[in-house]
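hi! just following up on the protien thing from before. the input was this:
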Amino acid sequence: MWTPTALASETRPLAGDAWRVVEHQYTVSTRKLVDTKDEQLLLEDILEISKPPIPKAAQHLHYLLATPFRYGSPYPRGSRFRRAGITEGVFYCSEDIRTALAEQCYYRLRFFQESPKSLLPRQETRLTVFSITYLTEKAIDLTKPTLVKNKKQWTHPADYSATQTLAENAREADINIIRYESVRDSEQGANLALLSPKAFRGRKPKKEQTWFLYISEDELNCERANAQKPEEFITFKREQFNHSDT
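and the predicted 3d structure came back as:
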């Protein structure tokens, strides 16, 4: 396994824009519970107090950027670069919108696979697709020599033990970003794991878009609101997410 010292020797500068997809449920979901806007604002304040704290290093950020760094309560399930339990947050994003949507589709579909009695929704799911700008002098790229030699460990569809250990060692080496191949995107797009709020170049999203997700037995369709260009209609075949190890 790569030690902090060995990882430090692999660091390089990295900068650019990246995309993240979240369900569009914030704010709107609380409005239907109250009668007035003032009551909604009060309810939002109450909910904010009940959430895990945002670390000081992320308190200046827009909530879409800061939310993944909330901790203080157990992280319910491990992810590729974060162990379950009370662990430091990770902001996952992708270099392209398509890859970010593929990641969202996989986890949305997995939710229904783990709840076999749940029916697939007939209505669309509204998504917020937003971009951020990142900049760091200390990043590692798992797709480049010599780290790519461990590709089987980095790209395992379900066993995250190696990548979680890698992330812990990367933090010890003060590495801020891990670039890696997406397992969910059939076109092998690249993802980024921002290990620290220090990696953000700005305080808020650079761009925001609204997309809609439609799920059927055979495919998942993503469509941008008021779409006009071919790249604003993206279809993923369901079988591309049927990893035998998940």
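The beta strands are 12-23, 91-94, 125-141, 177-181, 190-194, 207-215, 219-224, 233-237.
The chain has a mean pLDDT of 90.
cheers
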